[in-house]
Design a protein that fits this description.
This protein is an alpha+beta fold. It has two domains: about 130 residues, Pleckstrin-homology domain (PH domain)/Phosphotyrosine-binding domain (PTB) (PH-domain like); about 25 residues. It has two helices and seven strands. A hairpin with a 2-residue loop joins β2 and β3. It is elongated.
Amino acid sequence: MALVYSTEGYFCEGEVVKNWKFSMEYGRIVLSAIELSLVKKSNINLTERGSSVDNYKDGFVIPLTQIKKAYSAKIQKIYVVVVETRDGLLFSITMANNRSIGRLESINLSEMINSTVLLANKTSKNTQNVDDYKVKPVSNKCTKCGEEISYSWQFCKNCGKKL
């Protein structure tokens, strides 16, 4: 499984609401050649000082074959990547924080998701239908008389038919 993109951000199933930081999960966004994974993250305090260890829990796993489209949209004051699936589900992802609205990150992520989906669909079709893409050679015989012709000729020398 080839890793395409990985970052931290917020995500939720459905649309973003007014208090987005409280209604969305914070975690890791991992785009691979097979799927888009949204993994929840929680911090476990090991000492009184508050040092933490990243503890990743199960989140959403969306196979690339199920993604219909992904696009960047501005909802309220932040930019999100909206991922629509073929079965009608909607996921919202943002890399915004207190200082940024996540515009460039959302545009980059939506482009990466779309290009990875196209590439995954293309490779799956190529592995299934290899015979469909074979190039058939052009015949070098006249269709009327069957005489051998050159590809540069415009007329058959035997019967005079326009090629």
